[in-house]
């Protein structure tokens, strides 16, 4: 147990917090001291400061801002017919908000959001619950084979998503499964939602468990000692001390899982050839892929992407806000 | 996973940039010292051996083959790379996809580069597959006249007659289920748009037709709806298996002899040989069942042509190579013997009759005679400019119908609506 580097939960946040909203969370505390330095250093110092952030800004603009702007530009364009003859030629042209109108009125997009929600409702709580359970079990004193168990639970995370989906896909099919369950249509609705969520859970538990376990390891041992002296059992320590103390890490893993659920694509796309139940627009990102490549409608794909990105951003901010309020009120 | 995908993209881009560099050189007239370099995308197995023959005979025009994946993958990549201006000089394309590539400015008009000898190497109905408004956009490579592959041994074992009409096929389906509950006569797969379209054509459907500049779309015409009802009846009675084909599950069932027929096209023995090689010799090919006893015309399923792309700097040389590969006696015969294609050129089809049958139907000595007979009477077909949209909509709508218990009829009406809406939004005049 002693090999895990002890670090406060906030450091964990900083380490894994590559997303925008997370940065916003740590920003106020890091800005304040730099303001203090600025007073002493004068103009040269602040120029140096810009120099230090330049690489990050350049990469952010080149690989995030510009592609987003390009996607917004594409979302306002569409392939329309020019030239005569029965076939004619399709050329890209300005179509205004037509792609947004198509995306927002497409019943398939709504249905795919529903399916995504169904998978998320299964996958997110199960992933977090299992990760927390494993982390707490590994944190119990005198537990054996911690390193082995930790690695074993983490290992599925290292399996590429496509491989995991194929592996489970073969297990779901009665002929190719070594267990040969017939009778259960793993790849037919409604079991299909559980089957897809299961792959996400299997792949996701390990990573989340490590985050939570690291947070647990950083809790000072004296706290538990004091609790034991006060007559707490391991159950009570887990429920009343450990869980409240890892709430920030739980919020973080919750956000990751949520974003993971919003981005679900690889699992159903890989399972698609194995079943008639997964349509080409089964989840939102599959629709984006289909529009962009299969049906050659880049504009429509861009519009749907913009809508989805805005939705994801809004949802992430809401969750983060809620989690922050929780954290503040509990501390 | 994401970084890896990005790395692959970078590698692919680098490869393309290099490829474009190669094709750019040698624009000052081809010669053996300064040959024209052409790139060609084809998924046909062993086609590189045929190309080697060409390269040896034509030092001034050197062709490099790349397998960019099957029809859908290749078409997708062609569209994307044409936008970037670096598509290969030539590519293999399935017939239904060709109009969408003409419209997308991927396929170049090669009318002026095709001579009469090449034109005469094909029957009129085959040549019509790559000609639109009198402009030639590709050279036919192989054709897929529809036929029915069946397990001769299992038909005999169960005492079932090989059906010649769809009515007999339905009756035989019930017979098979009664005689052996683990087996099915065949499969209804919702992603087989090409098969369904072919069967609808056989019933008299015309999914697309053009009159002047105006299109008619008939995906939900009476003939097509009848085909939908036919399969819905069989699926509802559990007389055929409702499952996607060519999945590990289906392949295992085929290998175990539990799927007795695969109505598709002349190329089917090669596919089954790949997925269930242990069943070689147990199969035979029969003409596709008919709607009316005594009819003989069938549709085409699959089959491909090769196009010259608009990105090519050497359309003339590219057309010359494709004419040799697909239209010459030498090329067409090589397609038959080396690639195991059923050639589109009549010379190749005639050469086939003296060829040994594919290993899967080893016992059937008259295989290629039968194929030639079927190929001589195929139904002319017009594919629309957005077959890709129809194809995706078909699998989705039929998939939803088999899941939710909705009717196949309504699903087909939905495919029609999606196809027409897409054409109208693009700007076509659609009269129905």
Automatic annotation (TrEMBL), chain A:
GO terms for cellular component: plasma membrane. CDD domains: TM_PBP2. Residues 1-42 are annotated as: Disordered. It is a multi-pass membrane protein. Keywords: Cell membrane, Membrane, Transmembrane, Transmembrane helix, Transport. Residues 23-33 have a biased composition (Low complexity). Its main location: membrane. One of its GO terms (biological process) is transmembrane transport. The chain crosses the membrane at residues 47-73, 116-140, 152-171, 191-216, 245-265, 298-320. Residues 113-319 form the ABC transmembrane type-1 domain. InterPro entries: ABC_transporter_permease, MetI-like, MetI-like_sf. PROSITE patterns: ABC_TM1. It is found in: Cell membrane. Belongs to the binding-protein-dependent transport system permease family. This is Sugar ABC transporter permease. The lineage of its organism: Bacteria, Bacillati, Actinomycetota, Actinomycetes, Kineosporiales.
From TrEMBL, chain B:
Keywords: Cell membrane, Lipoprotein, Membrane, Palmitate, Signal. Residues 1-26 form the signal peptide. PROSITE patterns: PROKAR_LIPOPROTEIN (PS51257). This is Extracellular solute-binding protein. It comes from Pseudokineococcus marinus. It comes from the Bacteria. The keyword Cytoplasm does not apply. Pfam families: SBP_bac_1. The keyword Lipid biosynthesis does not apply.
């Amino acid at each position: 147990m002693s090999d895990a580097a002890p670090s406060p939960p906030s450091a964990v946040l900083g380490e894994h917090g590559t997303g925008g909203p997370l940065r916003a969370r740590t920003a106020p505390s890091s800005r304040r001291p730099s303001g203090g330095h600025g007073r002493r250093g004068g103009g040269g110092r602040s120029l140096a400061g810009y120099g230090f952030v330049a690489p990050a800004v350049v990469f952010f603009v080149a690989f995030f801002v510009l592609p987003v702007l390009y996607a917004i530009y594409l979302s306002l364009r569409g392939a329309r017919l020019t030239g005569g003859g029965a076939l004619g030629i399709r050329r890209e042209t300005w179509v205004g908000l037509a792609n947004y109108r198509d995306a927002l009125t497409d019943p398939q997009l709504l249905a795919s959001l529903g399916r995504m929600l169904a998978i998320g409702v299964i996958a997110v709580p199960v992933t977090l619950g299992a990760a927390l359970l494993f982390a707490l079990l590994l944190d119990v004193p005198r537990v054996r084979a911690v390193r082995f168990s930790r690695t074993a639970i983490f290992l599925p995370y290292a399996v590429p998503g496509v491989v995991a989906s194929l592996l489970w896909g073969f297990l779901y099919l009665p002929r190719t499964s070594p267990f040969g369950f017939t009778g259960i249509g793993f790849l037919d609705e409604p079991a299909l939602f559980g089957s897809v969520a299961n792959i996400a859970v299997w792949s996701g538990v390990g990573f989340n468990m490590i985050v939570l376990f690291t947070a647990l390891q950083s809790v000072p041992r004296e706290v538990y000692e004091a609790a034991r002296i006060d007559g707490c059992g391991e159950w009570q320590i887990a429920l009343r001390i450990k869980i409240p103390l890892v709430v920030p890490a739980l919020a973080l893993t919750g956000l990751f899982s949520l974003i993971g659920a919003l981005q679900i694509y690889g699992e159903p796309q890989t399972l698609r050839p194995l079943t008639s139940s997964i349509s080409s627009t089964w989840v939102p990102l599959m629709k984006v892929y289909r529009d962009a490549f299969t049906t050659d409608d880049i504009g429509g794909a861009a519009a749907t992407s913009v809508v989805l990105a805005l939705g994801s951003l809004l949802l992430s901010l809401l969750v983060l806000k809620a989690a922050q309020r929780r954290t503040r009120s509990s501390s | 996973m994401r970084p890896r995908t990005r790395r692959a993209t970078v590698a692919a881009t680098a490869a393309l940039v290099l490829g474009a560099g190669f094709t750019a050189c040698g624009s000052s007239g081809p010669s053996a010292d300064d040959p024209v370099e052409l790139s060609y995308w084809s998924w046909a197995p062993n086609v590189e051996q045929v190309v080697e023959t060409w390269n040896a005979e034509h030092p001034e025009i050197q062709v490099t083959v790349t397998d960019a994946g099957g029809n859908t993958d290749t078409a997708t990549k062609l569209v994307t790379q044409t936008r970037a201006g670096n598509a290969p000089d030539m590519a293999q394309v399935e017939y239904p996809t060709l109009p969408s590539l003409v419209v997308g400015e991927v396929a170049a008009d090669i009318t002026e580069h095709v001579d009469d000898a090449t034109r005469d190497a094909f029957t009129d109905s085959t040549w019509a597959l790559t000609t639109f408004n009198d402009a030639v956009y590709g050279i036919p490579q192989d054709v897929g006249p529809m036929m029915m592959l069946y397990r001769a041994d299992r038909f005999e074992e169960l005492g079932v007659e090989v059906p010649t009409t769809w009515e007999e096929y339905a009756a035989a389906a019930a017979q098979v289920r009664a005689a052996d509950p683990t087996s099915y006569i065949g499969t209804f797969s919702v992603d087989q748009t090409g098969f369904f379209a072919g069967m609808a054509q056989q019933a008299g459907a015309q999914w697309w037709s053009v009159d002047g500049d105006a299109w008619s779309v008939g995906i939900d015409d009476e003939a097509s709806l009848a085909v939908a009802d036919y399969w819905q009846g069989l699926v509802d009675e559990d007389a055929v298996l409702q499952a996607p084909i060519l999945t590990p599950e289906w392949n295992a069932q085929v290998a175990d002899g539990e799927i007795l027929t695969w109505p598709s096209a002349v190329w089917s023995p090669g596919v089954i040989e790949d997925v269930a090689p242990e069943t070689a010799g147990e199969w035979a090919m029969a003409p596709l069942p008919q709607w009316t006893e005594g009819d003989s015309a069938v549709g085409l399923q699959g089959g491909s042509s090769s196009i010259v792309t608009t990105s090519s700097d050497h359309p003339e040389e590219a057309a010359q190579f494709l004419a040799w590969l697909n239209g010459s006696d030498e090329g067409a015969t090589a397609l038959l013997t080396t690639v195991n294609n059923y050639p589109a050129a009549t010379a190749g089809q005639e050469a086939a009759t003296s060829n040994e049958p594919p290993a899967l139907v080893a016992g059937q000595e008259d295989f290629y005679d039968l194929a030639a007979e079927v190929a001589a009477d195929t139904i002319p077909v017009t594919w629309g400019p957005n077959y890709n949209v129809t194809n995706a909509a078909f699998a989705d709508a039929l998939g939803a119908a088999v899941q939710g218990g909705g009717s196949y009829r309504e699903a087909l009406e939905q495919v029609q609506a999606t196809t027409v809406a897409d054409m109208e939004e693009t700007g076509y005049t659609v009269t129905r």
